[in-house]
Predict the 3D structure of the following.
Amino acid sequence: MSDIKSKVQGLDPNVSPRDVKSIADSTGNIYEVLSVITSRANQLAVDLKNELHSKLEEFAVVSETIEEVQENKEQIEISKFYERLPNPVLIATHEFLSDELEYKYVTPEKRD
């Protein structure tokens, strides 16, 4: 996952308009393209979420009262870093347009 984070550092986190017809040229069907991008975005979202939670678990302190909230600058920096990352859909779209995604069609098997 660290290669994804380093790869998307230069990626613009803002949404930009895309030409839908040019995106669909590779498959001929925009719904297939959206299915591929959505599947990859879901994978990225789960991976990033799990990685963030594992890093923040290091700072977890079990306390009995709510008043004992401790502010940790390192924890805040980690959270800010993940907030600044582009949305997983933007990352997946960039990967698709850069031909970095591999996908294949699963054909149903015939039953005898």
Remarks:
- The CA atoms of residues 10 and 63 lie 40 Å apart.
- The mean pLDDT is 82.
- The radius of gyration is 19 Å.
- The chain has one domain: 16-94.
